[in-house]
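User: These chains co-purify. Model them together.
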Amino acid sequence: QQQVKQSPQSLIVQKGGIPIINCAYENTAFDYFPWYQQFPGKGPALLIAIRPDVSEKKEGRFTISFNKSAKQFSLHIMDSQPGDSATYFCAAQAPGEAGNNRKLIWGLGTSLAVNP
Amino acid sequence: SQTIHQWPATLVQPVGSPLSLECTVEGTSNPNLYWYRQAAGRGLQLLFYSVGIGQISSEVPQNLSASRPQDRQFILSSKKLLLSDSGFYLCAYGQLRTEAFFGQGTRLTVV
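Assistant: Joint model of the two components:
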């Protein structure tokens, strides 16, 4: 059972557009929601993250919007550039049974292409 | 600063051969360590995680095993590779209430 559902699977926008990637979760125990960016042949890298006590977080051109009641969160990329073309993963994290084991539950990823 | 090393970057192995991928972390102590596999164009599948030396949890029954002989060393192994073991293997580390940081990955092709 997939606990974090990510959409769309792929996305194409023009340079300057605002791609939006959405994720929905079911487990209300999740308390940390990161987004990762992965370029081909590389490992994912943390892009931006949010905790459920805030509804929005901005870092540069990247914004996370968080809706706790709907159990949804989304990534917005303002003024997108061809260099933003990558695969984006959302994830969610809950406290582990031992308090120190915090596994990430991953979405399946969104392949973003930003055309020049 | 914290860094993670994973090698080799690419590997081509025949079916039935053994496998050993190594991951080491620097600049942190007692990290949680993770092995993921990523099939081409697919998401991340957690294979193993470890919260301490000798403590390994398996997420998916498979042809692979993991070991943690030292605090900052995590090894992924197989006695006999299958074609289905091909993929992009990623090591990651994290600690309580911090993010997961990934290595650069190993592209394994089983032929």
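The mean pLDDT of chain A is 91.
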